[in-house]
Amino acid sequence: MLLGSLAWSNPGPKEFESFSGDHLVQLLSQEFCRGSSLPLLLNFLTSDCPELLRSQQPALASLAAASSERLNLGLLSVYRTQLGGQRVLRHWPLPIYSVITLGVAGQFFILNTSVQEATDPAR
Known about the structure:
Largest sheet: 4 strands, antiparallel
Low-confidence stretches: none
């Protein structure tokens, strides 16, 4: 009975997409909306960096879902996400984010997160 309820409540890709979009908004807000992390030009263009990122939650959720692989084990799922490394501006590469997330019993738990600075191919 317990195994059946776990399998039934194994969160699927749509739930993961919503969860990962919310998590990405939070992560990017911490990374880019404090102090002088944004390039000077972008600081002039936005007065509320966290709100700007929150407004992009659907796009970030789609990006995270497209950058993730799901291992469905029936009772639970393991999602492996890797995104970033692109250049937003000429001298501003995005870091590479890798996240391993466990989905079980209708919940998500982040097991591991790593951030790696993007390498500059021009160097």
